[in-house]
Amino acid sequence: MTNSLRPHGYQRTPLPQEAAPTPPSPRADEPGQQATTPPAASPAGQQPKQRDAFFDNAKYLAIVLVAMAHSWEPLTDTSRTAEALYMVVYTFHMPAFIVISGYFSRSFDMRPDRLKRLITGIAVPYVIFEVAYTLFKRWADDDPTYDFSLLDPWYLTWFLIALFVWRLTTPIWKLVRWPLPLALAVATLAAVSPDIGDDLDMQRVLQFLPFFILGLCMRPEHFQMIRRRSVRIASVPIFACALVFAYWAAPRMNSAWFYHRDSVQELGAPPWTGPVMTLALFGCSVVLVSCFFAWVPRRHMWFTVLGAGTLYGYLLHGFLAKGSRFWGWFDDYQWLHKPLGEITVTIIAASVVTVLCTPPVQRAFRFAMEPKMAWAFRKDPAEQARSRTTTAA
C-alpha cells in the first residue's frame, strides 16, 4: 500500500493477466498486506509488481459492509428493514472476502518464506487478538472469569484461523481433480454433523470452504467476465429482488443460517435441509458476490489505498462493535431504533472502519498484524542463495 491517501490519476488498472510471469503474492489477499514484490526480489530491469486497484477497492467496500452489518445486528429485532438489509449483506460480504483470499492463494506452496508469512501474518495475529478480545470481554462485560482459549475463536478471530487452515491445505486442493464439488460435499457433511463442536470454529471453516476453493479456481478472465456491462445492468434488478425476498423472509427465516457456524440440528431443522440450504445459500452468495464485483470500481479511488488495511479495520472495529453491546448503548438510546438513528449508526460504523484502515492506524498496530519475527526462524539456505544471487545481479 502507498502512503498517500489520494492516489494520483484516474486511469483504469487492468486485472492481472494469466500470462504474467510473476504469480500473485500469497499474502496479497490479506487485507493488511502488500501485493507488491519487494524491490530486492525483482529481476534486474523490471519494476515491482503493483497492487491491483480493483481488489483493494473490493476489500475496502466489503469491510465497510461488514462493519455496517455488525451495527445493524442490534436493530434487527425491532426493524424488519434492518433485518432484510442484514440478511442480504451477510449473504455476500464475507464470501466476497473469502473468494479474494482464495484467488490470491493460487501460488501458495510449502516454500519456507511463504510458511513464515503464514505464521506471522495470520497465526500470530490470531493469538494476539484472541488474547486481546478475551481481556476486553473480561473488562467491558464485567466477566473477570471468562477463560482464555486458543481453540475457541471469539467473535471475529474465526476468519484468521479459517484462513490459516484453508491456505495450509491449498496444495491439496490444487492437486485434486474436482476441488469445488469436493468442497461443497465437505460443507454439506459439516452442516449435518453437530458433533464437530466449537474447536477452531470448524463449522465455519468447513461451511465457508467452498468460497475459498471457488477463488482458488478462478482466473483473471473470470473477473473480466463479471465486469461486463451486461452483468452490471443485470445486477441492479437482482439486488432489488434479493432485498424484496429478504424483506419477506425476515420474520420467517433464522438469520443464523448466514453465519455458517451451526449444524442444521443446532438450528432446529431436519437433516435433509443440510444439502438443500448449503447449495441454495452457496448459489445465492455466488450470484450476489458477482453482482458486488460487477460494481466495484477498477480505477484508483480515494479509498483504494485503504484496501491494504482492511485486516486492521476488520479486527479493530470488533472492540467497538462488541463494546456497544456490553455497555448497552442500543438499550439506553432508543432513538437509535428509529429510521434516523439507524442511518446514524450506519454512517458511524462506515466512518469508524474507514479510519481504522488508514496508514497511521496501520503503522500503530503493525507490531500485532505484521510482525517481522526474524528472530523466531532459522535461516533458509535456499532463500539465502536467492538473496545473494539477486544482490549480485
UniProtKB/TrEMBL annotation:
InterPro entries: Acyl_transf_3_dom, Nod_factor_acetyltransferase. Keywords: Acyltransferase, Membrane, Transferase, Transmembrane, Transmembrane helix. Residues 31-48 have a biased composition (Low complexity). The keyword Oxidoreductase does not apply. It comes from the Bacteria. Residues 53-357 form the Acyltransferase domain. Residues 1-49 are annotated as: Disordered. The keyword Membrane applies. One of its GO terms (molecular function) is acyltransferase activity. The chain crosses the membrane at residues 84-105, 117-136, 148-166, 230-250, 276-295, 302-320, 340-361. It holds the Pfam family Acyl_transf_3. This is Acyltransferase family protein.
